[in-house]
Amino acid sequence: MSKNNFEVLRAGINTTYQDHGRNHLYHVGIPFSGAMDNRNYLIANDLVGNKKNTPVIEFAYQGPLLKFNGGKIYLAITGDVNFNIIKKNLKIEKGNCYQTYHFEDGDQIDILSTNKSVYGYLAVSGGFNVELFWNSSSTNTKSRIGGNNGQKLNKGDIVQNLKKQKVHQLKKLNYFNSRIEQIRIIKGTNYSYFSEAGKKIFLEKIFSVSKLTDRMGMRLEGPKIENIFDTNIRSEGLIKGVIQVPPDGKPIIMLSDHGTIGGYPKIGSVISADYDKLVQLPAGSKIKFKEVSLFEAENLYKIYSMETQNILNQIR
User: Fold this and answer.
1) 34, 22 Cβ separation under 8 angstroms
2) Which of 275, 15, 276, 24 is closest to 128 using CA atoms?
3) What are the phi and psi torsion angles at 47 (to 5°)?
4) Is the pLDDT of residue 142 over 90?
5) Which DSSP letter does residue 116 get?
6) Averaged confidence pLDDT in the chain
7) What are the helix and strand counts (H, E) for the chain?
8) How would residue 89 be classed by pLDDT, with cut points 50, 70 and 90?
9) What is the per-residue pLDDT across 234-243, written as a single tens digit (0 to 9) for each?
10) CA dihedral 35, 38, 39, 45 (to 10 degrees)
């Protein structure tokens, strides 16, 4: 076991351990969780030679300030992130995302902020020594399960490196996070509950991401979507990306730590191919929905998956 560790000098905002998530637990009220932006999560682990389901540190808006203690390791940051490397001689180096860095005892990484986005990822060679809860280390702070006893990282915490793992060469990936103009959706199971005018508003008007957004859900601001059937229904199962419309007519998109049942009608569901980009939209961002068929959504996910694999192949 490696004695390498990071001391948390500043925790940042919503800094947690995340991996690929936990399966087959919706029936007991436990959502999938896992990294919000799956593509950036996978890239981070590949850059430091880790297996694809290795835990990483996910942060929102402002990341942590970490001091490394131990032997030689490698780390990488993915996302659209502003950060500095502070060497043990106090020399400051401007960091670049999608690049592997060599760290030695006393070096620090200062993750200052994300740039017009929300989430970033820190991976280290060998991964972090994080306990599993139902076969996943993903932290769900609402349910208090996962890594770090289900809590965010705090100042003074010690983050243990799991084991040494050789990275044969420093790696760099020329990858840029694209912006999105439209979020594609398929019709929800309660689509018929809404008036024709309400459906038209949903698909043609612009909504904005509110500040009432976290890993559980994204609340939108904009014109009211009229329900002509029932604004409260018997609670039904929910999935990641489903769009509920409460009585106030303002949509809420369920995200990775969402509740597993809900009683608001579901007008649509964000397709899996657009989910990574959706979660990176900060408060104030504009969203316009576009309907696609289930067949189109399946093909778009295949394209997304192939694109992700092609990106990972550039690293290997």
Assistant:
1) yes
2) 15
3) -65, -25
4) no
5) S
6) 90
7) 5, 21
8) confident
9) 898 999 999 9
10) 50
pLDDT reading at 163 higher than 70:
no
Closest to 229 in 3D by CA, of 254, 195, 204:
195
State the Cα–Cα distance between residues 111 and 191, nearest whole angstrom: 42
Count how many Cα atoms sit within 13 Å of the Cα of residue 155 in the half-sphere of its side chain: 4
CA distances to 50, 80, 265, 311 from 175, in Å: 19, 10, 38, 8
Contact 61, 13 (CB under 8 A): yes
Q: Which residue from 45, 57, 88 is spatially nearest to 160, judged by alpha carbons?
A: 57
CA–CA separation, 206 and 208 (whole Å): 7
CA R_g for the chain: 20
How many other C-beta atoms lie within 10 A of the C-beta of residue 51? 9
Residue pLDDT, tens place only, 264-273: 999 999 999 9
Q: Which two tokens stand for residue 62?
A: 């402002």
181-233 residue pLDDT tens: 699 999 999 999 999 999 999 999 999 999 999 999 999 999 999 999 988 88
Per residue, the 3-state secondary structure of 238-288, as one string, reads CCCCEEECCCCCCCEEECCCCCCEECCCEEEEECHHHHHHHHCCCCCCEEC
What span, in angstroms and rounded, lies between the C-alpha atoms of 90 and 25? 47
User: Cα–Cα distance between 21 and 307 in angstroms, integer?
Assistant: 21
Q: CA-to-CA distance for 299 and 280, rounded, in angstroms?
A: 22
> pTM here?
0.92
- All domains in the chain, ordered by first residue: 5-160 (no CATH), 183-312 (2.40.100.10)
